[in-house]
Amino acid sequence: MLRRHLLIALSAGSLALPMTVLAQTYPERPIKILQGFAPGGNADAIARSVSQEMSKGLGQSMVVEAQAGAGGTIAATTVSKAKPDGYTLLLATGGHAVAGALYNNLAYRTVQDFEMVSTITYFPFLVVVPANSKYANLTALLAAAKANPTEISYGTAGIGSTHHLAGELLASMSKTQLLHVPFRGDSASLTALLSGEIPMIIAPPTAVMANIKGGKLRAIATTGPQRWQGLPDVPTVTEQGVTGYDVQSWAGLMAPASTPRAVIDRLNAELQKAIVVPAVKTRLEDMGGEVRGSTPEEMRTLVAGQTQNWIQDVDDANNPKQLMIRKKEVLCH
Asked: Coil, strand or helix: which one is 114?
């Protein structure tokens, strides 16, 4: 009996040993951070800002790689199936929770198939039109949409993105019809707006501020519950008659499920240190974000809660649960 107990104990210890050794020696090689949107966009910029600083504390380089498409779900699928050793991470945005509400056939579960590390930043979106647009404000644009259903289109970074749901929710809550035109990333939708292909886009501040400051574009609304500090004269959607409207996104770091807690804690600690470095914090704030880290548990609560909220919003809007694509939508490349 004693011998059997000893063998069981040794066996359990041998199973735990690799994870213990991994946690003590991690990281031993470069770490890859995948993000699911076009290079140079908001998610890419956030990932690069924090990874450069985190690599100093980790003693290894962190390589940011874009796997764009399907509202970020391609990158999320890759990470969910990666080896849980801390060397393949996901820079997730609010679109991660949106995907859990929109798609019935995801190859992963938005909460259970990931270990959360920490949130990084929270940010609103801007409703933007050309500087010479005939729509002086959002109220005027929505009035035009009511008078001519499906004639007002809006561009976003893609189907299933938070931008997309922000537009769908705006149409639903204002009782209008807005035609969604998805692009492959914010840069592509911005180009279409500047060329006159579409009358407005919904985008994060980092994608449009240079052109707003340069006089080419004009923000007519911000999607958060209060005015954005970067453009304090621009009213919220709620202030312009769509009471209760509130869409904000976030960015945070995730790892595959079953990644050792010691590895998660190491990543969390380095991320918390990185986001308070003045240069990093300023860079994130310049992108329109409110820098705010979290514990892994707090981030898990956020993702689970937002997924449920978006499920309810989709159901309330009577939108089909697969892609919410209207017949007139065109996928632009």
From this structure: strand
